[in-house]
Write a structure and sequence with these properties.
2 domains; 88 residues; mainly alpha
Length: 88
Amino acid sequence: MAITAVVRSLSQEEKDRLFKAVKELSNSMARATGEVEYQREATKAIADDVKLSKKLVGKLAKTYHKQNFEEVVAIEDEFEDLYKAIVK
């Protein structure tokens, strides 16, 4: 069914519910954008303060959030071994 046919078949109550959902999704997207901006600013601030790279601070935060330190270390070890095997 074409979109125009679907739109025409929607009741006013369905249109209102759809519009309400779109507004709520937009509000959620705005909050997510705000959080991303906060994360960038907080990362830069602490990185500058303690003289570490933003990349390293971000990796620390991401690893802490995911609680996957052992996995991160194992992947780095595998990468190091593979790199040494093929580059040297």
